[in-house]
Amino acid sequence: MIRNRPVSGTRRNARLANPAIRTFLADGSPFMLGLLGRILAKNDKIILVGSATDGQKAVRSASTLHLDLAVLDLQMPGLDGAEATRLLKELPNPPTIFVVSSDDSFAARTRSLALGADAFVVKSMNLAAELHTAIKNFFSDDLAENKGQSGRYATHENALRLRIPVLVPSI
């Protein structure tokens, strides 16, 4: 389920004053962690504030950093990315969370989104483009126009491009 989540007053004021996107990375593979860091460092709005190679360290670290964005690998030792997402979404001002995975299955996407992920991005040849598109969709450039919300949340068209399953209520 894709939800619009307004940002609390404190976070809204910080975001308007500083348009940087405070980002945390977690991936079980040091190689992929480095690759994700290099991909995101190309965006001058991103500030990498921390990283971890397992889910438990990710939750411990990320919960103290006042993040805007967490990019979590689905398959990590200790605690997987979906469970880490669930725990981070319980914070008073939870970050936007992108779960990344090489597992492109419907079950992986559905589980990640059900536990609170805002986007699911497949680790593929298009990883850099997909991440930059997701950031653009979730964190728009003109923050004042969005009145402090966490950017434009995925529309049906964006959900299809980001490979997010769109849940349509039955009538």
Short précis:
By secondary structure, this protein is α/β, with parallel strands linked by helices. It is 37% helix and 16% strand. Strands 2-1-3-4-5 form a 5-stranded parallel sheet, sandwiched between helices.
Structure in words:
With 171 residues, the chain is an alpha/beta fold. The chain has one domain: Rossmann fold, CATH 3.40.50.2300. The chain is 37% helix and 16% strand. The protein has a 5-stranded parallel beta sheet, with helices on both faces. α3 runs parallel beside α4 (81-88). It is globular. The chain starts with 8 loop residues before the first helix and ends in a 10-residue tail after the last helix.
> Could you say what the CATH topology is called?
Rossmann fold
| Assembly status | single chain
Q: How many extended strands?
A: 5
How helical, in percent, are the residues? 25-40%
Query: End-to-end span in angstroms?
Result: 17 Å
For the biggest β-sheet, the strand order reads 2-1-3-4-5
Strand content: 15-25%
**CATH architecture classification:** 3-Layer(aba) Sandwich
> Radius of gyration from the CA trace?
15 Å
Average of the residue pLDDT scores: 78
Number of helices: 7
Order of SSEs, N→C?
Answer: HEHEHEHEHEHH
Question: How would you classify the helix and strand content by structural class?
Answer: alpha/beta
The geometry reads as globular
Q: Which runs of at least 5 residues are low in confidence (pLDDT < 50)?
A: 1-16, 142-171
